[in-house]
Design a protein that fits this description.
There is one protein chain. The protein is mainly α. The chain has 15 helices and four strands. The protein has one domain. The chain has a two-stranded antiparallel sheet with strand order 1-2. A hairpin with a 2-residue loop joins strand 3 and strand 4. Helix 4 runs parallel beside helix 7 and helix 10 packs parallel to helix 12. The longest helix has 38 residues. The chain starts with 8 loop residues before the first helix and ends in an 11-residue tail after the last helix.
């Protein structure tokens, strides 16, 4: 079937699998939140608080994965199969190293970190948080593997394979979490479940299953020159390769840390507002993710396709696809946001029966359907595309300005000082979006973001530096046979 002229096939081929993937992720997250809410407001508040901290860790690991995605997409754009395989192996090794270090820190100091951030909560909520934290930190290395494998698969033009990893992990998560929380009759044997503890055990087991499947899939995936996962590339560190990955991943990680620490600070404001406010904020975030599925899908398409075009040296095409995905995201987000105006109240009723939580949620939902399509794409999709071109310093500085001056300070003034509560904290977030959107859009209009060099050329002869393969291996890959079209 011939597509309308305003739909780009290359963007659709990458974004559609990601959209399906994000739909499943979001629905599974919503189901998890509903299951937890049935235990009580204190349980869902505890999960929301710990997940805010977990998002800091996940964002660090995802940012490292962005480094792998970008470098792989540049090699893919150059049709360099050996560079792709080597970057995949070294990216996995580097990501695992970071994840083990983080797991060790939280194993030793997790309770102290929770007390420092959320010391004002009551003892029952703190007990839930401690149990949840002790278990989910064991899954950080599995998150590192699945994030990196999914990222490099997208960067090498296979978003469908990445989609299957996420679908397996999240569907398994829902099934296991339900059984482990509520129990299940198995013939004559009746398993009664673990109650609240089943939630973190279920998600950690699902992450383990997802990581194993991701490695098996990557090992079986054939590219030019053999399997995309070759163990000679993960036996030892090759620092010149890792430098290319970390040159993108480290600034992206710093940006994520700054962003998530700012979100954690706003969480401390919300803790002081009570359990109802904490639950409302968590539920609102879940509902927001449902509405934002098209935006997240096109964000992934932007970073992958910009990287591939930049790898080919096609700067104009990179700018064209980034502009296109921006406008497409703004248009597509209108659809779920309009729908949410009609189904918002019934959707909220699935999460909670607490009238105070419902009262706090209504203005947040109503305001988000306006702010999301207008300001979110420029404030988050554009920087993803800029990172695909290697423009990480600008996105880092912009993130600092938006988060700390407007979201953190503005959220405190509006939510605490002016007494607008959790709704005021969300208004501060919208201010952050508006500022970022303006700064990123101005950056897009220039050409400085297209001047970065991801793959170093120390000889100055236009040939990228490669250290993973011997010259003979490179000669075997001189005609890798990849389609020149992205995705």
């Amino acid at each position: 079937m011939k597509l309308p002229s305003w739909i780009r096939k290359d963007v659709l081929e990458i974004s559609l699998p990601v959209m399906i993937e994000q739909t499943m992720v979001t629905l599974m997250g919503m189901i998890n939140a509903i299951m937890a809410s049935r235990i009580g407001s204190e349980a869902v508040s505890a999960i929301g608080m710990v997940d805010a901290l977990n998002m800091l860790i996940i964002s660090i690991l995802s940012a490292i994965a962005i480094g792998g995605t970008v470098v792989v997409s540049h090699y893919y754009g150059r049709e360099d199969g050996s560079g792709v395989r080597c970057t995949i192996g070294q990216s996995l090794l580097g990501s695992l190293l970071v994840s083990f270090a983080i797991t060790l820190v939280f194993t030793l100091a997790g309770r102290n970190i929770l007390s420092l951030l959320y010391g004002a909560v009551n003892s029952r909520v703190m007990g839930y948080m401690t149990v949840y934290m002790k278990i989910v930190i064991l899954g950080y290395p599995f998150i590192a593997v699945t994030s990196m494998v999914a990222g490099v698969l997208r960067g090498s033009g296979d978003p469908k394979a990445a989609m299957w990893i996420t679908l397996l992990m999240n569907s398994t998560n829902v099934i296991l979490t339900y059984i482990l929380i509520y129990g299940f009759p198995f013939g004559l044997f009746h398993f009664h479940g673990f109650g609240f503890t089943g939630a973190p055990v279920g998600i950690t087991l699902a992450r383990f299953i997802g990581a194993v499947y991701a490695l098996v899939l990557l090992r079986r995936k054939q590219g030019p020159g053999g399997s995309l996962l070759q163990f000679e590339h993960i036996r030892r560190f090759k620092w010149d390769v890792l430098r290319s990955v970390f040159r993108i991943g480290v600034p992206a990680s710093l940006e994520s840390v700054i962003f998530q620490v700012g979100k954690l600070l706003t969480q401390t404001y919300i803790v002081s507002m009570g359990v109802a406010a904490m639950a409302a904020n968590y539920i609102a975030g879940s509902v927001f993710n449902i509405s934002n599925i098209p935006g997240l899908a096109l964000t992934t398409a932007a970073i992958t396709m910009v990287g591939q075009h930049m790898g080919r040296g096609h700067e104009k095409d990179a700018k064209s696809v980034l502009t296109y995905t921006l406008l497409a995201a703004m248009a597509l987000l209108v659809v779920p946001c309009t729908l949410l105006l009609f189904v918002g109240r019934p959707l909220i009723a699935l999460y909670t029966t607490d009238p105070e939580v419902k009262r706090l949620l209504i203005p947040i939902i109503q305001s988000s359907v306006i702010a999301l399509p207008l300001f979110w794409p420029a404030s988050f999709l554009l920087p993803a595309g800029l990172k695909g071109a290697g423009d990480t310093t600008y996105t880092l500085l912009t993130s600092i300005i938006g988060m700390w001056v407007f979201r953190v300070a503005g959220g405190y003034i509006l939510g605490v000082s002016l007494g607008l509560g959790v709704f005021g904290v969300w208004l501060g977030m919208y201010l952050d979006w508006i500022v970022r959107a303006g700064l990123y859009y101005k950056r897009l209009q220039g050409d400085r973001w297209t001047r970065h060099q991801i793959l170093r050329d120390p000889a100055g002869d236009g040939i990228p530096a490669v250290s993973c393969e011997t010259a003979g291996d490179l000669l075997q890959d001189s005609n890798p046979g990849w389609d020149s079209k992205p995705g």
